[in-house]
TrEMBL record:
<protein>
    <submittedName>
        <fullName>DUF899 domain-containing protein</fullName>
    </submittedName>
</protein>
<dbReference type="Pfam" id="PF05988">
    <property type="entry name" value="DUF899"/>
</dbReference>
<dbReference type="InterPro" id="IPR010296">
    <property type="entry name" value="DUF899_thioredox"/>
</dbReference>
<dbReference type="InterPro" id="IPR036249">
    <property type="entry name" value="Thioredoxin-like_sf"/>
</dbReference>
Length: 231
């Protein structure tokens, strides 16, 4: 780990790594283009959500924007707190809505818990992003993040694996308002596909020690909700 060299040697090592980083960036740009070129599925169900301004449909969540990005936040109907991992991700959401809106994109988090619980927890965490309740309806099941009783009648499972790992799982879905006024489901990602929207993880990946998750009982055993760290 502590491999000390001269500044000249370090510069050469850094330039070599930079070439790999640039190749990775080009590959990522190509992957992003391929993602944008994915076919879409028309969303026929209007769905229903409880929001701070009243009941609305999936179309209503767009707020007049052409695109909608939804973070599927793990917070079951009978839970007293939101998932600590999703809370870690949510710490990255505040302030992004205005920038997304400038690119004709709306953003919100969606959970199955009642709206009152979501707002109370959001206040506790000090967040301000939009958060709505899907009322434990079919939305979260249809987009493969909720599996009541760990069952999955579709057989697709979580992250297209055909397997179910829990009743509530995290994810992100992107939708597009179609020219005919309908809604297209363009993309969903789960599990490690969510890493890219976690700024803290991406910062740690730039450090010598990295995420420091090796040898733990499970990957995120170190994690606490932001108001539960000591000191």
């Amino acid at each position: 780990m502590e491999n000390l060299v001269s500044r000249e040697e370090w510069i050469e090592a850094r330039k070599s790594l930079l070439a790999r980083e640039k190749a990775f960036t080009r590959d990522r740009d190509a992957l992003s283009r391929a993602r944008r070129e994915m076919p879409m599925v028309r969303v026929d169900d209007a769905y229903a959500f409880d929001t701070e301004t009243g009941e609305t449909s999936l179309a209503g969540l767009f707020g007049g924007r052409r695109q909608l990005v939804v973070y599927h936040f793990m917070f079951g109907p009978d839970w007293e707190e939101g998932c600590p991992s999703c809370s870690f991700w949510a710490d990255n959401f505040d302030g992004i809505d205005v920038h997304l809106s400038a690119r004709d994109t709306a953003f919100c988090a969606v959970s199955n818990a009642p709206l009152e619980k979501l707002i109370e927890y959001r206040q506790r965490m000090g967040w301000s992003f939009r958060w709505v309740s899907s009322r434990d309806g079919s939305f979260s099941r249809d987009f493969a993040v909720t599996f009541p009783g760990k069952s999955d009648p579709t057989g697709r499972g979580y992250n297209y694996s055909g397997k179910v790992f829990g009743e509530e799982m995290p994810g992100l879905s992107a939708f597009l308002r179609l020219k005919d006024g309908g809604i297209g489901h363009a993309y969903s990602t789960y599990a490690r596909g969510l890493d890219i929207i976690n700024g803290a993880y991406n910062i740690l990946d730039l450090t010598p020690l990295g995420r420091q998750e090796e040898g733990q009982e499970y990957t995120m055993a170190w994690l606490r909700r932001r108001d539960r760290y000591d000191g």
